[in-house]
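Why do we care about 3D structure at all? Because function follows from shape, and shape follows, mostly, from sequence. That is the central idea of this module. The next example makes it concrete: a single protein chain, its amino acid sequence, and then its structure expressed as tokens.
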Amino acid sequence: MFSRRNRRPKSPELLTAWEALDAGDVPGALRQLRHAPEDLPLAEVALVVGRAAGAAGFDDLGKAAGALAAAPDKAQQLYDFGYACVERGVPHLAIPALREALRLVPGSAAALRELVSAYEREERHREAVDVLAAHEEGLAAWPDRYLLVFNAVLAGDLDLARHHHALLPAPDDDMWLPARDRQNRVLARAESAQPASPLDHTDLRGWQYVLGGTVLGTFSPYGFDAGMAGRYAWLQDSHDQCLRGLLRLKAVLEAAGTRPASVSLLPDRGSRVLGLAAAEILDLPAVPFAPERPDTVVIAYDLNETLEAAGGPELLGGLLHRAPGQVLHEHASCWTDTPAVAPDSVALLHQSVVAPWAPALRADADGGVERGEPDERPETEIAADIVAADPTPDEGDGETPADSVERLTEFVTAVRGTWLSGERTRVKSAGPVVSSRFR
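And the structure:
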């Protein structure tokens, strides 16, 4: 009998991935699969995935792929393959198989929920909404209609989200209470933000607030119309930008009527530097961070750096439920690798940042690029340089809309009733704001 081991895919895209596996290049094969069309023969896709899974030691995915290659028209095999793909972190490969499983068994709640899970992990929230709405008659309130509301918000469709939220009864199982409370907070924030913010697909500040309760202080002056909508890709940060972020924080606190009594210093070096500068700008004493301390501004340079410090995970866990009047400000917040904690205030959003005191890139004598030395001066000296810096914004490429302090404070005044409320959990999504990351 002819062994399936000798079979090769016929589709050009899959054949390229197969040849990458011939060369032992599993990551290269997976990149080919990432960019392949979704209408390729599932039996051939399963052949490639099964071989890649075997090379990676993923026996569950390899077994599911082998079963699908042998019976690509069977709903159970389609579902098992999709489930294994989601579990192994390749949800984009799960989507075509789960769609077909749901087509074969339209009433399968398992196939529907797993497909929605795959869409969510790929941040394809509009498609998650569409498939849930297409099966509305069979939706359970929890989790299905809840997931419809959740994905409608992330797709930017607040009207649809409100409609289905109104149809949700109280959950029978207490496990859904935190999800319900989070959804209530999200929609309350949207209600408060809408009079002061368009909440369209370029409204970065509005959606950051709706999704996580975070007030965004500044926008990148580059690439706004190229999909970044105010976010930075790579940023070599400066003392000037740090000062500008702290002045925006001061304006936010004043507009919200928040009167902290201290600045709390987190343990990582960047946060201590910025915290000492914040204490000067806000004219407040600097104290070590304590989770139970009320009426304080907790200053982080980058929460991902804080997470890597000694005791970082426990520290961030303590910031999920904040003491009364405790405000968390993060200067440089990574929007592609977000920690679980949502800050109350953020100066800027980035994909990759080089702090002003870190080794910076510079031109060398031969016209190339080299990395300089870190600034190892005492933290107080660097903080003094921030306080003395020039906060004038970079003019950029001229495409980013003007964003005055007055515009920011108008937004804060509108949302002050819903700011600083509830657990500060972060939705793992950039939301409906279009960016080059998702093209």
